[in-house]
Amino acid sequence: MTSVQVDKQHDGNEAPGQEPEEGYQRGLGNRQIQMIAIGGAIGTGLFLGAGKAISMAGPSIVLAYAIVGLVIFFIMRALGELLMYRPVSGSFSEYGREFLGPFIGFVTGWTYWLFWVVTGITEVTAAATYVQYWNKDIPQWASALVFTCALFGINLISVKIFGELEFWFSMVKVTAIIGMILIGLGVITLGFSDAGDTASFTLLWSDGGFFPKGIGGTLMTLQIVMFAFLAVELVGVTAGEATNPKKVLPKAINTVPWRIGLFYIGALIIILSVVSWTAFKPGVSPFVAAFQQIGLPAGAGIVNFVVLTAALSSANSGMYSTGRMLRDLALNGQGPKFFTKLSKNGLPTWGTGVSVAMMLFGVYINYQWPGEAFNYVVSFATISGMWAWIVILASQLRYRAKANRGELPQSEFKAPGSPFTSIFALAFIGMVIVMMGVDKDARISLYAAPVWALILGIGYLCIKRRDAALVAAGADTKS
């Protein structure tokens, strides 16, 4: 839905909250949406990034994941309220455009596109790293190139194929984590394997305490933990292609608490109870390290395959999301018109193709700086991804105020505790951004943010000069 269509909706030409036809095929069913929602919360941030977080904070990383997980739930319920008001493929970019103004919609669309391009580079980089677990002779850049081209081909077939691939990617991740938890419980309670004599829940506090690096060490991991949850909002982008969005999406969003509790908190508690936190190192998957410590090298290989699929899953989701976001921008006159074109299968192939071309820059990064590529791009992804969360929360606050005044229909899926939960989540994100400024490794993203903002500001002024009438129509939706 474009900003002009929002005007028509509010003028009464369409029923409130009813989305018009966007041209996409509603090919994502309940089974696929549920697994996309689950898989969106399980990626490289957990399988690879958690190693660095554990080394920085020790067992208290469990508390960091729990707190951030609560904030993520507030964000997702805010998104859910907006989705039930108007489920569209543009999602938070559309909501930013309607409730915060056309410029915010423009910034959000292009920033979320950048987020997925950078995340695609991050995930392909991680996947190429995992391949070297089996064969170090394979150049990292070569693996990255093969993966990028293969996933692009999949995204050119149909949205059903994308959904099915994500279903099985997510199934692999879920099965592996549950299996890891069960094996870990067996090691702790029955004492089998090489780690059986030392494995105990007491490792959570006996080796330097629960906060071995102090509260400050835990706080410094928050941006890493936030990165682990990036992409959980992807379920909102699927709204335009879900078969029954008003039934399927609330179910997916309501699974967030148990997903976080089981796949993050539960898995980390078991891992840190099997192996002391001092054994984990940055750049090494804690899951792989745990299996090696247990003395199951075959298990480590299996987990490495799982984290490989997790990275490819996230990169696949990135290609899916970028094409939809570019098309939404183009439909609103905020991007090149050729991005509006759909293939015979209802796919935004132009937007996806251009995005993949940008992702191929990641292959060059892998070639030029193979050992540092992951760290270079992860901070860029974090700050751009958090912008989407900020817009979701701010849009929901604005929508709720209008709905309470009777200017808009009430959502069928209200965020509990709002506006207080949304305000708390916004404050928390602000604190994390401040902590990123303190961390010298993450600070680079804050240096890049003003440059990106300047580029977007210049781009928006050019668009406004070219088509002031369209911008004015978008501005009307804010009032």
Give an overview in words.
α7 (102-131) packs across α22 (443-466), α8 packs antiparallel against α19 (361-368) and α16 packs antiparallel against α17 (297-331). Helices cover 72% and strands 0% of the residues. The protein has helices at residues 3-11, 30-40, 44-47, 49-57, 61-85, 92-100, 102-131, 140-155, 159-190, 203-206, 214-219, 222-229, 234-237, 245-254, 256-274, 286-294, 297-331, 349-359, 361-368, 373-404, 420-438, 443-466, 468-476. It has a single domain (30-464), classed as Amino acid/polyamine transporter I (Up-down Bundle), CATH 1.20.1740.10. With 479 residues, it is mostly helical.
DSSP strand content: under 5%
Q: What composes the largest sheet?
A: none
SS-derived structural category: mainly alpha
CATH class equals Mainly Alpha
Poorly predicted residue ranges: 1-21, 473-479
Q: State the separation between the terminal residues, measured CA to CA.
A: 18 Å
So, the CATH homologous superfamily? Amino acid/polyamine transporter I
Shape: globular
CATH T-level topology: Amino acid/polyamine transporter I
Q: Please state the average pLDDT score.
A: 80
Number of helices: 23
CATH architecture: Up-down Bundle
Order of helices and strands: HHHHHHHHHHHHHHHHHHHHHHH
Number of strands: 0
Number of domains: 1
Query: What Rg do the Cα atoms give?
Result: 22 Å
Helix/strand layout:
Elements: H1 3-11, H2 30-40, H3 44-47, H4 49-57, H5 61-85, H6 92-100, H7 102-131, H8 140-155, H9 159-190, H10 203-206, H11 214-219, H12 222-229, H13 234-237, H14 245-254, H15 256-274, H16 286-294, H17 297-331, H18 349-359, H19 361-368, H20 373-404, H21 420-438, H22 443-466, H23 468-476
Helix pairs in contact: 1-23, 2-9, 2-14, 4-12, 5-12, 5-14, 5-15, 5-20, 5-21, 6-7, 6-20, 7-8, 7-17, 7-18, 7-19, 7-20, 7-22, 8-17, 8-18, 8-19, 9-15, 9-17, 12-20, 16-17, 17-18, 20-21, 20-22, 22-23
